[in-house]
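dumping this here so i dont lose it again. seq + smiles for magnesium ion
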Amino acid sequence: MVSILRRSPKLLSSICRRQFSASSDGNLTSHGGKSMNLYSAINQALHIALETDPRSYVFGEDVGFGGVFRCTTGLVDRYGKDRVFNTPLCEQGIVGFGIGLAAMGNRAIAEIQFADYIYPAFDQIVNEAAKFRYRSGNQFNCGGLTIRAPYGAVGHGGHYHSQSPEAFFCHVPGIKVVIPRSPYQAKGLLLSCIRDQNPVVFFEPKLLYRLAVEEVPEDDFMLPLSEAEVIREGSDITLVGWGAQLSVMEQACIDAEKDGISCELIDLRTLMPWDKETVEASVKKTGRLLISHEAPVTGGFGAEISASIVERCFLRLEAPVSRVCGLDTPFPLVFEPFYMPTKNKILDAIKATVKY
Amino acid sequence: MIPFVRSSSRNLLALLNQNYLYPSLLCSVSESPILVRYDGRWTGSLWSTPRFESTEAVRRVDQLYVHDNDDQELDFPGGKVPFTSEMRFIGESTIQKRVPCYRVIDEIGEITTSNNFTQLRKDEAIKMYKDMITLQTMDTIFYEAQRQGRISFYLTSSGEEAISVASAAALHPDDVALAQYREPGVLVWRGFTLQEFANQLFGNKDDYGKGRQMPIHYGSKQHNYFTISSPLGTQIPQAVGIAHSLKMDKQDACAVAYFGDGTTSEGDFHAGLNLAAVLGAPVIFICRNNGWAISTSVQEQFRSDGVVVKGQGYGIRSIRIDGNDALAIYSAVRKARSMAVAEKMPVLIEALTYRVGHHSTSDDSSKYRAVDEIEHWKMERNPVNRFAKWLTNNGWLSVEDEYKHKTTIKKQLLQAIQNAEKTEKPPLSELFNDVYDHLPSNLQEQEEVLRQTTKRYPQDYPSDVPL
Ligand SMILES: Cc1ncc(C[n+]2csc(CCOP(=O)(O)OP(=O)(O)O)c2C)c(N)n1
Ligand SMILES: [Mg+2]
């Protein structure tokens, strides 16, 4: 159940099915710097966080030897066991501990081994971290807390190594939710999360840990939170997504273009609090909106985006908002290709929306 | 602060009686600091005194709780507590003097005790041995199948074969097993076939879990083996609920929860133990302490003397055993079972063993532990070899039989893999079934849409899933 991405022909075929693009023509753009994959970019961000703030800590299950996805490689050697350490196997403990550490003015960077295992910590996140500042009248806060967790489908993770639980956390005022789509984004956004004055849940697309490679500057840089990014401009329809799903959506945009449909693709990046203005401006221009995510469609964050945009753009919309998402089932092993919001499902929805 | 009162005081007696007479005054300590919550049965029945079978345990408790010969006592909810004028902290750890480990067979296969174990019949002993060999052979072949990319994931019981097999042998088939994931030996013992194992690993239409979960997440209603779930520790409080039901139904059966050392750090472990003790649930908690939780060693997992001492904290009868000694496991589980069922109580067993293999096929344990440590446990402390020595000393083991068994199992396994691989996957409808008891309208609609999509884009979908 560890390093799920390693050596399985089954996985490779399923990735091909998802038609992932790791090339630089896609949403992985060139920024200069060293070419690296997503886990190395995370690793670099953690190095920088520990280097630049002596009151920063990295901890979680198995982080000492580098973590099951290698994101914490080399940190113990460099910064010592007091600042980088394995915790006992207890997610509620990890987050509760992180809240306390952060409340004392530290940068607590907690790792939950898989997003699927964040639920034992749900109470600490929802009732504690999220309300720490508010309930104390801003006497106390745990803004230094960042919770990292790998999320999403990888081809053979089944129920408990595939989930995308972001919507649960978006429903909690006081928590920020951030999901990067590429190595460059991961490094810049993670550093912003770590240095943000609010508790953040940072979901990492584990499918991309090794697969996504792009140039990432080696220096210390941050990318803004709560700012969506238009990664492909278009005029007929706006597509909104985040994380690993963007590469699938990008493929659909490319295919739609062949049919003469011009798609605008937006990476939301921060899901909460989200950048409504960028999405609104785009939808006012295109008149159409499609949202896609891996999590089940019902009650997913797509529902929130849809409702908000209908409120703001009702008279500008030329078609109902479309959602292409995971099915309302647990994440299924052998049925994964059926469950997933595939490129062709998105392409069909683009066409249907434009033709409406 | 709560102003505590002493039971030796006549006034208190009066007060308590008063409270008893006027139930409206009964309130919890937090509501009213002076009044002690009481239900009238104050002669000690509320204080669930731990009953220890072993004199060693009693002796240890006595050391921990020294008190003056002062006849004054604190009458506290739950029972009287003696006062002491000595300020004395209970030590943080008993690690210097560790709880000993119950063993029956030594490394050369000799019995070390004359009568402190349960005699095994020859046929039982041979079945145990054969099942351990089956488990080993399964592990070798399925591991290899994963390496070849035929299944996506696997995880072995290497080094821990004795725990699952010998404990299952000591249980009744009616006892409900809730495993973590490294206990397929229980299923082997209960007659789950190699074909059934292979079907789950390949997620084909004959897999009882309908191909929905990752490999190794077995489950079989027929074998009283609840379906494995990856989130660690969740089965522990569930086992207590199952045990409570067995007790209410007056069944001659108990629940058995298996888990690793790492899992004892999860909240669910503590929740489960406490509930079990308070409810008097007939449940056996079997901890496989194999030294590691992926890369985290037990030294990083807890500072207590392992897991066994935690039972006492919750008021649970507990024992530490040699997890690589099949006869010790068999004897201890036998005894634990009879206590759990007859006396309606939980029992905690900590079996010391070692995870000889990598955590799983996704792990490379050479990154975090010494090879000679693995070798030592694999060779010198091998549980299957040790049991074989004892069987040989008894004159019960025939080399020829063993060889025949190994080759038969190997053949059967290869056949089972072939069959499982050839068998088609569960049909698409199984993606939607069982989310609820009946298919709600949102899923009906999603199924219809999906079927249309699969017709338009057949290339997107695996050909082995019937539509
Ligand atoms: C709630 C939860 N957190 C984390 C994990 C990831 N994980 C799977 S196995 C494992 C180690 C378990 O160790 P232990 O309980 O000692 O069992 P062993 O593997 O040694 O048999 C971890 C951390 C998980 N499955 N569930
Ligand atoms: Mg373990």
